[in-house]
Specification:
Low-confidence stretches of chain A: none
CATH architecture of chain A: Orthogonal Bundle
Number of strands of chain A: 0
CATH topology of chain A: Helix Hairpins
Oligomer: heterodimer
Number of strands of chain B: 2
Helix content of chain B: 55-70%
Shape of chain A: elongated
Mean pLDDT of chain A: 87
Shape of chain B: globular
Low-confidence stretches of chain B: 376-394
Largest sheet of chain B: 2 strands, antiparallel
């Protein structure tokens, strides 16, 4: 069962990263912001996965399980993911503002601020 | 007293954070107190940075053993807590940031601070991120400070608004967000492999890795390297840089002069520490970095020659200096690092002064004057419009002989950035050339030759381009002399005087840089200071 969980997990990371990369290479600012978000999700899951996937293991020491670290999952990547999510969220929001400002100044949603010549 | 000195390393992070938060909360109408608070904060940072500079050299007795100062945040010892580490190199970078920050702040108060909202708090957060990046001894904490610095820089690059700024800012933000994601992937990989994020513990754990894991570690190091090379402006990851730097408001451009050096600093620090593990990853040091730096220098030099506006020229000069530093750090042996640190200080101060000077020199000029004579004729442009972005009525009392000051300062900047005597740019380049020749028995001859040729050619190209554009700016008969305020001329003059002092007292400055380089390469001492070897009593 763990194997299928890891398979699904890695497939999710891979597909999101691929979709994100594709979108980032597109010429419209909206595609880029969605691409950046997808990439950020993939990276966050990846960080989480680096703490090894475990089922039913708590990250915080509880009296019931005692002090044996083998019974717990690694809490550090979870803390890192939390930080990364917050930072990613803030920078994406900021990028959204810049995207709208760019649209307002140039009247187009092309990343270069002008439509390519036909 | 000792108790307070112990907390000195956290001061450069805490001061701008508190000042920035207070500035955010206070309303824009309380202009005087806001500016006073900004100055108090930056002056405190200056004092702390120079105290740390003396302490790292052993001239100020600090409650830490050895030359490397450790501050455990929250009292949690490494590797479980996050530590701040102060050695000579970190202290040099802190002092450089504080000095440049003070100059840029004085300059911005005269006019530019009012060109948009939240300049002062963003400026404080930028300084906080910079100081934190130089001090931290933890990989993920480094990411956090990088993000603080970048988030503030995203705001600052748009300061003053306008279409070209927003367009350049958009590219700048996308590239740096992507680089941050690379940083995260690499940090996660490093943690997944070694189980630590502490920079001092990292080499110990890497040395203990299974041989089968080395390949994965190389991948992690490569991704990490890409993230820092983007920040350092190394070719081919630097196409965002000229537009973002060239379009930024002048005080922002001045403080951005140090932003690329952050990437260079982290590459150097991580490279030395990882070398200690015996598993030397490619992006940090070595021939690879040498050639990467050479190409960056070449591309920057071509940009310098082709730039038609002074602010773009200044941005390309930033790339050239980044390339020079990367080349020096990639050079065989460690002899070049001391002079390279000296060159870094000189080029950051000179670059900062240049960004501020450009805006003053270009006041009252017509836009078409930016084009070279040839292209001007080719496009048939006769008269342009007045640069509407610089509202001249805002400039204050004219100081006497403004043109004379601008001309002198421009000449000084040219000498500084191209490496001609008598300013510190010359001393830096001369020391670099001397060190490259001195390392000849160990270093391959073609490397030495390539380095010397690249260094001299980039200087010459800078001289050609700067004098060509300088002639058009200063011998422009059709305009009235620009009006300057003392607040604007002062910081430029001060930065240039510091460079002159650095050139006149090389035994102080150059010797300190060499000592910084020596203590940097003594990675064993760094590691022992952060993670003391287990006491004998606890050993089984």
């Amino acid at each position: 069962m763990t194997l299928s969980m890891e398979l699904i997990f890695s497939l999710a990371v891979g597909i999101m990263a691929a979709a994100g990369l594709y979108l980032i290479l597109r010429p419209r600012t909206f595609q880029i912001i969605i691409g950046l978000s997808l990439l950020a999700y993939a990276v966050n899951l990846f960080i989480f996965g680096m703490g090894r996937l475990r089922l039913g293991a708590p990250p915080v020491i509880t009296p019931a399980l005692g002090g044996n670290p083998a019974l717990y999952t690694d809490p550090l990547p979870q803390a890192l993911v939390l930080t990364a999510i917050v930072i990613g969220f803030a920078t994406t929001a900021l990028f959204l503002v810049v995207l709208l400002a760019s649209r307002g100044f140039s009247g187009t949603d092309h990343v270069d601020g002008e439509e390519p010549e036909e | 007293m000792t108790h307070w000195l112990h907390h000195l390393p956290i001061l450069p992070i805490l001061t701008p954070m508190l000042a920035g938060a207070l500035l955010l909360l206070s309303s824009d109408s309380r202009h005087g107190p806001r500016i006073a608070l900004s100055f108090v904060s930056v002056l405190l940072q200056c004092a702390a940075a120079f105290a740390l500079l003396a302490a790292a050299d052993g001239r100020l007795t600090m409650p830490w053993p050895g030359a490397v100062g450790i501050y455990a945040l929250g009292g949690w010892a490494a590797p479980f807590g996050i530590v701040l580490v102060v050695d000579r190199l970190a202290a040099v970078m802190l002092a450089l940031t504080a000095t440049l920050g003070l100059a840029a702040l004085v300059y911005s108060v005269a006019r530019w601070e009012k060109a948009g909202v939240h300049f002062l708090p963003l400026f404080q957060f930028l300084l906080m991120g910079l100081n934190g990046t130089f001090l931290t001894g933890d990989l993920f904490n480094l990411f956090v400070f990088f993000e603080v610095m970048l988030a503030a820089s995203y705001g600052l690059v748009l300061h003053g608004s306008g279409g070209s700024r927003v367009r350049a800012g958009l590219h700048y933000i996308v590239v740096n967000l992507l680089a941050s994601l690379f940083f995260l992937i690499a940090a996660a990989l490093v943690y997944g492999l070694t189980g630590t994020l502490n920079l001092a513990e990292l080499p110990l754990r890497v040395a203990a890795l299974d041989a089968s894991d080395h390949q994965l570690f190389h991948v992690a190091a490569a991704i990490l390297g890409v993230a820092f090379l983007v920040k350092a402006g190394a070719w081919p990851l630097n196409f965002w840089l000229p537009a973002a730097y060239g379009n930024a408001a002048p005080p922002v451009g001045a403080i951005f002069a140090i932003l690329t050096k952050v990437g260079v600093y982290v590459l150097l620090r991580l490279g030395v520490l990882l070398q200690e593990s015996g598993v030397a990853p490619a992006p940090f040091g070595g021939t690879w970095l040498f050639y990467c730096g050479l190409v960056t220098m070449a591309v920057g030099t071509m940009g310098v020659l082709s730039a038609q506006r002074l602010d773009h020229l200044a941005a390309f000069l930033v790339i050239v200096s980044s390339g020079t530093l990367l080349t020096s750090f990639g050079f065989t042996g460690t002899l070049l690092t001391g002079p390279a640190i000296y060159y870094l200080i000189s080029s950051v101060l000179g670059g900062g002064a240049f960004f501020m000077l450009i805006e003053m020199a270009e006041r009252n000029r017509k836009q078409s004057a930016d084009m070279l004579a040839i292209s001007q004729e080719a496009f048939g442009m006769e008269a342009g419009q007045h640069d509407s972005e610089h509202p001249d009525e805002m400039a204050g009392v004219a100081i006497p002989a403004a043109m004379a000051f601008l001309g002198l300062a421009f000449v000084a900047c040219v000498l500084l950035l191209t490496g001609l005597p008598p300013l510190s740019g010359f001393v830096g380049k001369f020391a670099l050339l001397g060190a490259s020749l001195a390392s000849l028995p160990n270093a391959p001859l073609p490397h030495v030759g390539l380095f010397i040729v690249a260094l001299l050619l980039s200087g010459m190209a800078g001289l050609i381009a700067l004098s060509r554009l300088g002639i058009r700016v200063f011998w422009d008969m059709e305009r009235e002399p620009p009006r300057l305020q003392w607040l604007e001329a002062g910081p430029v003059a001060a930065l240039l005087l510091i460079c002159q002092w650095m050139a006149l007292a090389p035994e102080t400055t150059l010797a300190y840089c060499s000592a910084a380089s020596n203590s940097l390469y003594d990675a064993g001492a760094y590691i022992r200071s952060v993670i003391p070897p287990a006491p004998a009593a606890l050993a089984p």
